[in-house]
Design brief:
It holds the Pfam family OEP. The chain is of the alpha+beta class. It contains ten helices and four strands; from the N terminus they run αααββααααββααα. It has helices at 5-11, 15-35, 37-55, 91-160, 165-199, 221-231, 233-254, 291-339, 344-352, 358-389; strands at 63-70, 78-88, 259-269, 272-282. The longest helix has 70 residues, at 91-160.
Length: 394
């Protein structure tokens, strides 16, 4: 038998169309990466965090003091004292903190990558929803044309006495249902497009694709798992935070080294000036107490977070893989069934020719349309599952 021609056209994905869909989504994501206000704000936040981290390695402010003393008995006898000094940490501590700041910058960039990935994944899922809604719109338009033709035909038959009011009312009810579904579909499509525009900084997005990109199902789970675990941005961010925490331990250990102070001192007593050098040491016996223990506890906390995140990523991947596998198998079953399905035009001819009743027609048509709606839902869920699996490629 023939395939269901009008609807099947919307569900046949040619290679050229699939490549264009992929390019279309990628272009949308590039625009959003440039125009999204949250990404722009986060970029400035990361810049400020990097600069703030560098301030921890700044020198303290120099000090200048002047004292003027005079005698209790003879006020003409005076002493003046000028001191200019600069304090600083032990030199090796600056080098250690500089390495820490470079690691912090890498950790901040990793956090930014995670945030960027979340926004782009959100945008990609919106694109996938828009594609599904457009495919549903195509089917609803076909249903609407079919229902309108039948409504006109049975209205004439009712006037000539070849149809009864029950059949006419059933067709009119179908027409009302399709119009309602089409209206809801149009509203949902506009809302999704508005969400996409909002992600793009409220700049209208040009996205006209109605076909999904081709994403084959990965047959080897272990290879997929190795790839995903090696490129997961959350795990990479926690790995960088772990490096920061370990370097912080080294910094806190180095802070037990003495602080130094160098300066110039000028003393004048009754017109006889004395010049000299000021040298001082400060031993941090109290202010660094427990700081090494704190840094070690924080490092252990990060490591445990990373271990937990690893388990979460593995679990999420396994769930997504099972979901995608089930969806892919169901899609193949539907595709095989569609190939042997009756053509809608044949059903319509059988109805108008009196070979089947109105009830039989609507039962057949309802099953066919519902099957295609189910297929569209399955493919949308499959595309989203694969997008989440390969989110590190965004």
């Amino acid at each position: 038998m023939k395939q269901i021609m009008a609807i099947s056209t919307a569900l046949l994905f040619l290679t050229i169309g699939e490549v264009q869909a992929q390019n279309g989504i990628e272009q949308v994501l590039k625009n959003i990466e440039t125009n999204n206000k949250e990404l722009q704000a986060n970029e400035q936040l990361i810049t400020s965090q990097k600069l703030e981290a560098k301030t921890d390695n700044n020198l303290p402010d120099p000090t200048l003091s002047y004292a003027h003393l005079w005698g209790a008995k003879d006020k003409n006898e005076t002493i003046g004292e000028l001191v200019v000094s600069q304090s600083f940490d032990f030199p090796s501590l600056y080098a250690t903190r500089n390495k820490l700041n470079r690691l912090k910058a890498g950790a901040f960039d990793s956090q930014s990558d995670v945030f960027r990935q979340e926004k782009l994944l959100q945008a990609k899922e919106l694109c996938l929803d828009i594609i599904m809604l457009r495919q549903q719109k195509h089917i609803l338009e076909e249903r609407l044309r079919n229902a309108e033709e039948l409504a006109k035909m049975y209205a004439k038959r009712l006037q000539t006495g070849d149809a009864n009011a029950l059949e006419t009312n059933k067709i009119n009810l179908e027409l009302l249902n399709v119009r309602t579904e089409a209206s809801l579909n149009e509203t949902a499509l506009r809302n999704k497009q508005q969400e996409l525009n909002t992600l793009n900084g409220n700049i209208p997005v040009v996205f006209e694709e109605n076909q999904y990109p081709a994403i084959p199902f990965p047959s080897d789970y272990q290879i997929l798992k190795s790839e995903v675990m090696a490129t997961d941005r959350t795990l990479m961010a926690l790995g960088n935070e772990s490096l920061v925490a370990r370097k912080q331990i080294a910094v806190n250990k180095s802070q037990w080294l003495p602080k130094l102070e160098l300066g110039y001192r000028r003393n004048t007593e009754t017109g006889a000036p004395f010049n000299g050098v000021v040298v001082g040491f400060s031993f941090p016996l109290f202010e660094n107490r427990n700081k090494v223990k704190i840094a070690k506890a924080q490092a252990l906390n990060i490591d445990l977070q990373k271990d937990n995140a690893t388990l979460q990523v593995e679990s999420e991947l396994a769930q997504l893989y099972r979901e995608a596998k089930t969806l892919h198998a169901s899609m193949e079953e539907y595709s095989k069934t569609f190939q042997s399905q009756q053509d809608l035009s044949l059903l319509k001819q059988a109805l108008t020719g009196g070979q089947i009743s109105m009830i039989e027609y609507f039962v057949e048509v309802s099953v066919i349309y519902q099957s295609y709606q189910n297929y569209l839902q399955l493919e949308n869920q499959y595309q989203k599952a694969m997008a989440r699996i390969y989110k590190s490629k965004l």
